[in-house]
Specification:
- It is a single chain.
- By secondary structure, the protein is an alpha+beta fold.
- Helices cover 32% and strands 31% of the residues.
- Strands 10-9-11-12-13-14 form a six-stranded mixed β-sheet, sandwiched between helices.
- Helix 6 runs parallel beside helix 7.
- The radius of gyration is 21 Å and the shape is flat.
Length: 285
């Protein structure tokens, strides 16, 4: 199995009424089954790159492990599509029951739906990192410049671990969640400190993406795409700054805007307006 996110494919392309044959690039789709302590745990569909990091990040995201040291061995059988993982600890079936939903709150503020593993592993982010708007634009521009696979296939997503000044590492996958798990796995393997880190992202910020950001432990995600309302409610609860539609020199700040330096003064003014309006309303009740 080749470790590549794209493959050549012979196609017939029509333009108006004319056609021609050519070789196009399509995204590679690869099923990978994780065997955990000899038992089948999960099968994911992914791009066949950085599979070790993907498996580690996925297990951490699902609450199976917290550190890389909990893994005794990890072997990828590429030809058969298996990842064999042995942990130092014995896992009971109820310990890895991640398919059932429960109603609760990660931090006691709102009632939302979570998987069981999310209740245990999602956490409030206390990051004090701040960033200039111009730095956000530069990071997204740099991510787009490294998105050759997307430009050729249109079928993959990119995630990058960054400082405010540069991209540190970029991971690509057909799945948005997988790209983040690859980043998470590398963070755990290399024990990368996250105090000054953020995530740049190409995909839509859904609730599942937001929960992965919480589990990773960074306080800022910048995406070129849109967020969902549940993702933003979770972000408000979990202390995460969500920036969407970051394209060129335009972006939307949806939650916790005080981490964006230029928005801090505007935020203070808005809070004063809200406080004044609330006081006015209470006086006339």
């Amino acid at each position: 199995m080749d470790e590549t996110v794209k493959q050549d494919w012979h196609i017939i392309r029509f333009h108006n009424e004319s056609d021609c044959t050519k070789i196009d690039q399509v995204a590679t789709e690869y099923p990978l089954t994780i065997m955990l302590n000899g038992e089948e745990f999960a099968t994911m569909v992914c791009s066949p790159t950085d599979l070790d990091a993907l498996v580690v990040g996925f297990l951490a995201s699902e609450g199976v492990i917290r550190t890389y040291a909990e893994i005794r061995s990890l072997h990828i059988d590429r030809s058969r599509g298996f990842a064999h993982v042995e942990l130092h600890k014995h896992i009971q079936p109820h310990d890895i029951d991640h398919s059932k939903r429960v109603i609760g709150s990660c931090c006691g503020k709102s009632r939302q739906f979570y998987f069981k593993s999310d209740v245990k592993t999602a956490k409030t982010v206390m990051s004090r990192l701040s960033i200039h708007a111009s730095q956000c634009y530069r990071l997204m521009s740099a991510l787009q410049a490294q998105s050759e696979d997307f430009q050729e296939t249109g079928g993959v997503h990119n995630a990058a671990l960054c400082t405010v000044n540069e991209l540190l590492t970029v991971r690509t996958d057909i799945g948005r969640h997988n790209a983040l798990d690859k980043i998470y796995g590398q963070i755990l393997y290399e024990r990368i400190p996250l105090k000054d880190k953020l995530i740049a992202f190409s995909g839509r910020v859904s609730s599942e993406v937001l929960l992965k950001i919480s589990k990773i432990g960074v306080g800022i995600i910048i995406s070129k795409s849109a967020p969902t309302d549940l993702a933003l409610k979770l972000a408000e609860d979990l202390g995460i700054t969500v920036i969407g539609f970051a394209r060129g020199r335009v972006m939307n700040i949806y939650t916790h805007p005080t981490r964006i330096i230029e928005a801090q003064q505007t935020t203070v003014a808005l809070e004063k307006d809200h406080s004044t309006n609330d006081q006015h309303d209470s006086e006339h009740q």
